[in-house]
Amino acid sequence: GRRHIRGSEEEERPAPEVKKMVPAVQVPMEAAVVVLVVVAGFMAAALLRAQSTGRVQKGQAEEEKKHARAPNPPVSQVEKLIASRRSIFPKDYNGKAVPRGVIERMLEAANWAPTHGKTEPWRFVVISGEGIGQFTAMKNEENLEFLVEGSVDWEHAMKKIARKQKELGHVSHLIAICLKRVVGKKGKPMPEWEEISSVAMAVQNMHLVATAGWVAGYWSSGGWNKALASERVKSFLGIDAADRCLGLFHVGMSDKIARYRRKPGSWEDKVTWVCGPVDAKPLNL
Asked: 18 to each of 3, 14, 21, 261, 265, how far by Cα in Å?
């Protein structure tokens, strides 16, 4: 130690403490590489999770945006479309083909019809091209089975078949309107009259879309309880014995749509308003 002399006294101070250096831990190179790989793996997994979450959130947002309710058209436009709908007879079709895209939009609109129990009982079979002639021939054969050959009714039917055959040459598509008996949530079918009503409303939706696109449409119910109810026709349409074919919707293009006029009777004559007291005895509950 160093000696400090103060006056005549001599004082010796202790030497400062020397800290010992701890030798560094030697980590093997292989272990360091393993640690780096593990850390990189965790970081990559976290990045992938973040990207995946972002994609899911973006997809959900796009899906919600796609299904967001668009503003309804003005009431006046809806009323005008409904009042413009007409049944255009096939004899006034011009033979031009209706684009498949138009048919698909008609069928999509039909799918939005009201349905009790959400059974959606409507079924449609779209027939075009040579299929129209083949189906019509089968339908005519089945209808004639109900008549005596050579009778007055048989002769009348043959003349009608010849006339209709010519008209069908102008039809672009035939859509068989079918009712499928569907079992509801309670394990049994809904009342048939309710299901028929649903199918009819589906046809109305379909017809309105056709009207909006200046496409002619006509629902023919001929033979619904004869040829269209036969096992042969049902088999062709792919429906079961308990199901029904309620007619054929004829679709085509026409230059004579504007000529069709209609003036329905007053709606007020068909409506009764009940606003006051009803003559009925109250129930004792």
From this structure: 18, 12, 9, 115, 117
User: What is the CA angle 249-251-255, rounded to 5?
Assistant: 140
Alpha carbon distance 220, 269 (integer Å): 28
> pLDDT tens for residues 101-148?
999 999 999 999 999 999 999 999 999 999 999 999 999 999 999 999
For the chain, helix (H) and strand (E) counts, in that order, are 7, 6
Do the bridges between strand 173-179 and strand 244-252 make them parallel or antiparallel, or are there none, so unpaired? Answer: antiparallel
Q: How far apart are CA 230 and CA 243, in angstroms?
A: 11
How far apart CA 31 and CA 229 sit, in angstroms, is 81
Q: What is the DSSP letter of 161?
A: H
Structure tokens at 240: 């079961």
Count the alpha carbons within 13 Å of 207 in the hemisphere toward its beta carbon: 21
> What single letter denotes the amino acid at residue 275?
C
Other CB atoms within 10 A of residue 25 CB: 5
Q: Could you read off the pLDDT of 195-244 as tens digits, one per residue?
A: 999 999 999 999 999 999 999 999 999 899 999 999 999 999 999 999 99
d(CA 178, CA 243): 7
Q: Which residues, other chains included, contact 153 with Cβ-Cβ below 8 Å and sequence gap of 6+?
A: 147
Residue bearing the bigger pLDDT, 14 or 218: 218
Angle between helices 130-144 and 152-168 in degrees, nearest 10: 170
The Cα–Cα gap between 122 and 113 comes to: 9
Starting at the earlier edge strand, list the strands of the sheet with 244-252: 122-128, 173-179, 244-252, 216-220
